[in-house]
Amino acid sequence: MRIDLSQVRTVPLDARPSKVAVERFAQPPQAGRSFADFVASLPHILAGEDFRQVVDSIVTAHRRGRPVIVGMGAHVIKCGLSPVLIDLMKRGIVTAVALNGSGAIHDFEVALMGQTSEDVAAGLRDGTFGMARETGELMNQAINRVLDQPDKGMGALLAEQLIALDAPYQDYSLLVAGGKLHVPVTVHVAVGTDIIHMHPSANGAALGQASFNDFRLFAAAVSELSGGVYLNIGSAVVLPEVFLKAFTIAQNLGANLRDFVTVNLDMTAHYRPGENVVHRPASVGGKGYTLIGRHELLLPLLAQAVVDGMTN
After folding, report:
1. Which pLDDT score is estimated for 123?
2. pTM score of the predicted model
3. 184 is in which domain, residue-wise?
């Protein structure tokens, strides 16, 4: 027996709540439009609105003297975006940076040689992958100094090494920028994941101590996150885990974090950033956003919108 649709109840269209209205639609392109007008022309729907909210959150945090912390993976550096982030550090917008181990390596090589990123597959054939002599020797030499300076973090040690070497491309280095601007740049390693751990000069005790010191420094930055913004850019595992632990320490010690914003920017959605950056911390007292797109497009767009927002 078929159901009789003649008795189905309907409601007037104008009485039904709708989630999309033309007032929120995008505006068509215009030649010569300013960047601020371009951002304003984006749809007030989904990521278009989220993008504006993230920009506003960063601008507001900066104006109120609250932290804007960036945790980032190595691919951001390999996309050529270090100058964008260094500029935000110089402007006082980004107040702390956290790198994973490979991020520090690519940053160090860029400062030293003006280039980075090898052909992994080719190096696997003859066992030379990751075996660049200067990278291993100079980075491990810097890190191993923690054995004589037990309070130093890995980021500071690497920055000091690059400055002492007068690295020719140090203006492109996040590590050096942090050292010169007194902006904490911390490095968080998992032993065995980075190429310098394969070199004869690697010292497990030094790696652990230097990274642990930076973890404590990062946790101190996170403990001040109330009213601020944390951005996870291109790290799928290490930094989302580190952030969640730093957040827990802050709460354990009475920080009572609230009114903060967390943002995950990546080229694809991953489990840990979604949970450890966007959802779980927000449930405590903040708001989380996810922006998906290519780093080399999304981050410059975000930075330009923030800088423009500072002038409005």
Report:
1. 87
2. 0.94
3. 44-113+172-191+214-310
Rg over alpha carbons for the chain, rounded to the nearest Å, is 23
In a domain, 229, yes or no: yes
With beta carbons less than 8 A apart as the criterion, state whether 260 and 226 touch.
yes
| pLDDT value of residue 159 | 98
Q: What is the pLDDT of residues 276-312, one digit of tens each?
A: 999 999 999 999 999 999 999 999 999 999 999 998 7
Low-confidence ranges of the chain (pLDDT < 50): none
Beta-bridge mates of residue 292: 266
177 neighbors 90 (Cβ within 8 angstroms)? yes
- What CA–CA distance (Å, rounded) separates 33 from 49? 19
d(CA 85, CA 97): 9
- The residues, any chain, with a CB within 8 Å of residue 14's CB and separated by 6 or more, are none
Distance in angstroms (rounded) separating the CA atoms of residues 304 and 312: 13
Q: Could you give the number of structural domains in the chain?
A: 1
Rounded-to-integer distance, Cα 165 and Cα 258, Å: 42
Write down the residue that tokens 């000069």 correspond to: 201
Write the CA distances from 141 to 31, 134, 162, 212, integer angstroms: 54, 10, 11, 17
277-295: string of b/e by CB count within 10 Å (b at 16+)? Answer: bbebbeeeebebbbbebeb
Assess if residue 275 is contained within a domain. yes
Give me the DSSP letters along 107-155. Answer: HHHHHHHS-----HHHHHHHT-TT--HHHHHHHHHHHHGGGTSTT--HH
Q: What is the pLDDT of residues 121-146, one digit of tens each?
A: 888 889 988 888 899 999 999 999 99
Which H helix or E strand runs over 289? Answer: strand 286-292
**Whole-angstrom distance, CA of residue 175 vs CA of residue 166:** 13
